[in-house]
Amino acid sequence: MAIDTVLLAVGPMDAVRAPELAETTLEIAAPLEATVVIGHAFTEEEYEDVHDDLGFDARVDDVDPNAVAAQRAPVPELADRFEEAGVEYEIKGALGEVSTKVVDMAIDIDADRMIVGGRRRSPAEKAVLGSVSQEIILQAPCPVTYFRDLDVMD
Questions:
Q1: Does the bond joining 74 to the residue before it have cis omega, within 30 degrees of 0?
Q2: Which domain holds residue 131?
Q3: What is the CATH number of the domain that holds 88?
Q4: CB 106 within 8 A of CB 144
Q5: Number of CB atoms found within 10 A of residue 139's CB
Q6: Does residue 99 lie in a domain region?
């Protein structure tokens, strides 16, 4: 099975590990000349919290998720790194329940691989708070590389 499209799913916590996520993605995509899709899903609440900071005045119902994703950390930094490396990339945004939207995005772009980051949580925290990355891994339509960063905490 050829790898033509790699989905790098990111969220706001990934800003601190963007260089490592970029490197991991480039290790897979660059030698295969695969296209990287930087995907950022966000909830309506998250959008409401940042829309002023990003310069958007549109109500959540009128927002273009791709435009929001393109401005939301760590997407611009990742885009710069892929451009410098000569790797073709796209930016996709989605608004809604994060794990579902990321899986839908993988299906829509026909991703051959996914890369998702996660943070360390105890089993009790996962039971109470859930785990977006775990839901993505369990529902993914393709193999997933899980980038676990022990330094990124709630």
A1: yes
A2: 5-29+40-149
A3: 3.40.50.620
A4: no
A5: 15
A6: yes
d(CA 68, CA 54): 8
Give the H or E element holding residue 79: helix 75-85
For 58, which DSSP code?
S
Task: Write down the pLDDT at residue 6.
Answer: 98
pTM of the model: 0.88
| Stated length of the chain | 154
Residue 78 domain flag: yes
In a domain, 154, yes or no: no
CA separation, residue 56 to residues 53, 60, 69 (Å): 8, 10, 12
Nearest to 82 by CA among 5, 149, 25: 25
Cα-based distances in Å from 123 to 118, 129, 134, 136, 149: 14, 10, 12, 17, 16
pLDDT in tens, 29-63: 999 999 999 999 988 888 777 777 777 776 766 77
Provide the domain count of the chain: 1
In angstroms, rounded to a whole number, what is the distance separating the alpha carbons of residues 133 and 137? 6
Give the DSSP H/E element, type plus range, for residue 38.
Answer: strand 35-42
